[in-house]
Amino acid sequence: MPPKEPAPGPRFARTTEKGHGRVEHRSLESTVILTVHPKWPGLKQGFRVRRWGIRKGKAYEEVVHGITSRPPEKADAKRLLELVREHGRIENSLHYVRDVTLGEDACPVRRGSAPQVLAALRNVSVHLLAHVEADNHARAIRRLAARFHEAINLLASPL
């Protein structure tokens, strides 16, 4: 369990989510004290997110820090916590497609600029696959493999 936390308010928020056989708690504390530093133009808030719970029968706690250009009047602690959670969902879904569907982690290419070139090509692929009529990216890939003319038309279209 984390240390005693402040009461909910503009600088502190907490959530609890249950699902997938686990309970996860999240708390966010924000501060504007970092905004006085002249090397951080545009910085409006800093924050700390704590996540803790039980995953696969084991207790865990994670702490991450972040910064944002959103001022407190546009994003209090509760809103920041929502934005952090949404960012995680987007990252996880993109990572899943790139890693599992497109095999990024299994790729043996590790030297020079080739990994960055391949990452850029995977990003283009994800964008193009979003325009294919299919339930998911894997089905879109199979559809294009079976319908070569659709793949060529997709590459030639001005999306």
Automatic annotation (TrEMBL):
It comes from the Bacteria. Residues 14-24 have a biased composition (Basic and acidic residues). Residues 1-24 are annotated as: Disordered. Signal peptide: none annotated. PANTHER family: H REPEAT-ASSOCIATED PREDICTED TRANSPOSASE (PTHR30298), PROTEIN YBFL-RELATED (PTHR30298:SF0). This is ISAs1 family transposase. It comes from Gemmata palustris.
